[in-house]
Amino acid sequence: MAATQTLTGVLGVFAHPDDETIMAGGTLAMLHTCGVPTHIACATRGEGGERGEPPVAPDQTALGPVREAELRCAAEALGVTSLTLLGYVDPVVGPNAELGPFAADFDELTARIADLIAGCRANVVLAHGPDGEYGHPAHRLIYQAVLAAVRERAPAVVFYSVAASVPGVEDHLWNASRTAHLALDISPWAEAKIAAMLCHRSQHALFKRRRGLTRVEEALRRLESFHREWPPAGDSLPDDDFAALLRAAGAVAPPLFAHHQKEETR
After folding, report:
1. Chain segment 163-172, per-residue pLDDT in tens
2. Half-sphere exposure (Cβ direction) of 187: Cα atoms closer than 13 Å
């Protein structure tokens, strides 16, 4: 599967280390194998998150450098061309598992994202969905900033949100307000995604606990889904070059995916 010549680069913008792997790791690995330059921008180092079981850092103040190293390991496993850390500070999770956004001037964040798009010559951006997947305020902030960046400063760039809802498939990560235009079974690139997941050691207990699993590998999500946010596609199947490459890799529209699932279970 050859790279689409007009795909000059794909930039993934995420709030925390591991977001890139869990929600788009298989797709990033696929893009790498196709020769498409892939870039990741991560807003924070995830310093407010969990330290792992057993802890990978002696205290919360030491977690940031550890999670940054985990992110760099994952980016290498996925074949990412470049990694940029934006340097915002991830707030510590509250006493009742309360999640918060990182502190940022919205206009400045938007301008920095636009500069990154131009600097890496990306004509496709991937980022969180409008619901913040499971409602994370930092994810929602990234979505809003990316949408503003492409709409106001880079209107020729195509923006897809990740973890779009796939009818008939349950996952707490889905953005309920967005139905996927395309869903990709990333099984051919699962090895790379698992390698990246294994890099994020501080989050292994979380990966397993959320779904009652015993091994990190069991937390692999083989389905990655996308909704085109800009330019809006509505209910139509997108016809841009990223969509074409996804389809060449095996992605299908959700109704077709559901049909395939039924055929496999007969």
Report:
1. 999 999 999 9
2. 3
